[in-house]
Design brief:
By secondary structure, this protein is an alpha/beta fold. The protein has two domains: 2-159 and 360-494, FAD/NAD(P)-binding domain, CATH 3.50.50.60; 164-233 and 242-357, FAD/NAD(P)-binding domain, CATH 3.50.50. It is 29% helix and 25% strand. The protein has twelve helices and 29 strands. The longest helix is centred in the middle third of the chain and has 36 residues, at 235-270. 42% of the residues are buried.
């Protein structure tokens, strides 16, 4: 039994096994959801079930060199707990420490059960509650929880397995093959030839990070990616702090960065050719004059058709210019004893090959879900306001932006979630379920060209073509809809 004092001085007794809200996942989304519940619904009890033995989610899982966010922490961080560093693009350990300090500061850590991996959930309409079964890692026993609501903060990545293509002749290679999601502790790459396969955020992070110890690092890409240099340090925040203090410096810098993200995305969408030339120019001026920019930094798609990668202080371009690293644009024909053979006939020799080839998606962490004894098949359901699913009562989930900072969206969803519960309390409702027109036209949940999305499209829920079934990817629009818009909706059924 855990007791918690609310802001009103009331005592909430949380048995942890039976709660108002059960949050799945103690990553950045789950911790954020817990804060909003405490702040806006202080009389509600909750518990967070975390399958791993520590909080942080993504930022606890990934351990590869140089891991960092490619979103600035003034927008990626929580609006209620200002990011205190002037460093905008932060490393993974710093982000995890920030999440941990947030959980400790607001007492959220007292409501986390670690080593509890949720395996199944079942809604019972007669009881108006969820039954949640979790496997306790310390003894492998199954334990059951009961909750009025479930809030899933699991994201959509598969944590136990990254994606690696079936490369021809992979077993021929005599060196080490590593996926960044499963980075070995204390990997020795001193004076080694490292080959990174991939061109996404992980690859462009690993390339400069490994040059300090490796003999040479090569990034092999099938298709170039748009890469935009950004300053690592937020100059505005640094200038403002002595004048207005940390709190207001954070708020002003956050607002500026939100506007900058939105403006640049809209600019890329409206003027793709101009945006392409702008990014090309920024790349070219940071590389040697004779560098083949058009070969290695000229994607065949428009900016933001796939995610754009940010590099702090041009670190990637710096190591390329210094000759510590190189980029090869080609396709793999097969692995060889010494490395990989390319379709051009060239062989790239390596001691270590890193397959930064993407992630697998696993919506809701692969949790088995039933409603009144009937199995839930996610592709049969449509997202409502990007936070609930048609036909499934009292279930909310967090999916952030793909074209901006993840937590900007999640924060608004958490606010709306709390407003929804407060509305239900005021009306005496205990159950809420979105109901979709079965003839409604739908489209993929994530309308994004990235390979990891395209591979898993058929495993995800759907979305509609009009609000509230069409998910917005615009922060300004979502502020109006989720923070200020009404909770009542003709597509919601309350009981």
């Amino acid at each position: 039994m855990v007791e918690r004092k609310t802001a009103k001085g009331n005592t909430v007794r949380n048995s942890k096994s039976s709660v108002d809200v059960l949050i799945i996942g103690a990553g950045i989304s789950g911790i954020g959801a817990a804060y909003h519940l405490q702040d806006k619904l202080p009389d509600k009890s909750y518990v967070i079930l975390e399958g791993r033995n520590d909080l942080g989610g993504t930022w606890d899982l990934f351990k590869y060199p140089g891991i960092r966010s490619d979103s600035d922490l003034f927008t990626f961080g929580y609006d209620f707990n200002p990011w205190e560093s002037n460093k905008g693009i932060a490393d993974g350990p710093s982000i995890k420490a920030y999440i941990a300090s947030t959980a400790s500061k607001y007492g959220i850590d007292q409501n986390i059960l670690y080593g509890h991996r949720v395996v199944s959930t079942e809604w019972n309409s007669e009881k108006g509650r969820w039954s949640i079964v979790a496997r306790r890692e310390k003894d492998k026993k199954q334990v059951t929880f009961s909750a009025r609501w479930i809030f899933s903060g699991t994201g959509y990545y598969r944590y136990d397995q990254g994606y690696t293509p079936d490369f021809k002749g992979r077993t021929n290679f005599k060196g080490k093959v590593i996926h960044p999601q499963h980075w070995p502790e204390n990997l020795d790459y001193d004076n080694k030839r490292v080959l990174i396969i991939g061109s996404g955020a992980t690859a462009v992070t690993l390339l400069p990070a490994m040059t300090d110890r490796a003999k040479h690092v090569t990034m092999l890409q099938r298709t170039p990616t748009y890469i935009m240099p950004l300053p690592e340090e937020e100059i505005l925040s640094k200038l403002l702090r002595p004048l207005v203090g940390k709190k207001w410096a954070f708020r002003i810098t956050r607002k500026k960065n939100i506007l900058r993200q939105r403006w640049f995305f809209l600019y890329c969408q409206k003027f793709p050719e101009r945006a392409r030339k702008l990014i090309h120019r920024e790349n070219a001026k940071r590389l040697p004059k004779d560098y083949p920019v058009d070969v290695h930094f000229n994607p065949p798609y428009n900016p933001w058709d796939q995610r754009l990668c940010a590099v702090p202080d041009s670190d990637l371009f710096q190591v390329l210019g210094e000759g510590k690293a190189s980029i090869v644009t080609d396709k793999i024909k097969s692995f060889t004893r010494k490395g990989v053979r390319l379709e051009s006939g060239q062989e790239l020799e390596a001691d270590i090959i890193i397959t930064a080839t993407g992630l697998n998606l696993l919506p809701f962490g692969g949790i088995r879900m039933k409603v009144d004894g009937k199995k839930v098949h996610l592709p049969d359901h449509v997202a409502f306001k990007g936070m609930m699913l048609s036909g499934i009562p009292n279930l909310a989930f967090a999916v952030g932006y793909t074209t901006s900072s993840w937590t900007l969206k999640v924060g608004l969803l958490c606010e709306h979630f709390c407003r929804l519960i407060a509305y239900m309390d005021s009306k005496g409702y205990r159950t809420c379920v979105p109901v979709a027109d079965p003839l409604m036209e739908t489209r993929p949940l994530l309308d994004f060209g990235a390979g990891y999305v395209q591979r898993s499209m058929d495993e995800l829920p759907r979305r509609g073509t009009e609000f509230p079934w069409l998910m917005s990817w615009d922060y300004a629009e979502d502020v109006k809809l989720l923070r200020k818009g009404p909770v009542e909706d003709e597509n919601l059924t309350f009981r």
